[in-house]
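Standup notes
- DV: blocked on the single-chain target, sequence here:
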Amino acid sequence: MSDHNTISMKQALRYWHPVASSEQLQQSAQRPLPITICGESIIIFRTSSGQLGALRDRCPHRGAPLSLGCIEGEHVACKYHGWTYDNKGAGSSPSGSRASVTVESFDIEERHGFIWVKVKDSNDKIPDFDDASYRKIASKTYPANVPFELFVDNMLELEHSPTVHDIFGFDFTALKQMKYEDKY
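- DV (later): unblocked, structure below
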């Protein structure tokens, strides 16, 4: 992967991404749910008190995937040596030693029936879908094994919906009525 693609993917994580449905996370209640977004391996989980967490899927103690571990109360426990991490990434040793490590954490929110993730140093806001004129028709998740830039370009292009999704998109003849505003 070129440096340009790496930079683009890291920049893409500055924005909120819906990574799983609330239902998917609920079904994975005893174990963290592994996801890959913009080339980054992350786990998402809900603690026993309902707090959400999103951490890099790599235990900093010995490098094992945290996705192989389990949720114990308010922590994710690494299966390899039992180190535990809270939803902010603060870790502690099972032996009670003073040694401590942290794992990178991500911002995580639950809205509109989905779990959303982004990096911590971003001020991006989750899109607001609470407009009374909107109605949910369906949700479907599936893997898209394509370059991230191509996927974003495809989904943001105004012509995409009426030509590909004529069942729930708008009529192609209405395309000229659409208003496009560049806010950047």
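- Follow-up: The radius of gyration is 19 Å.
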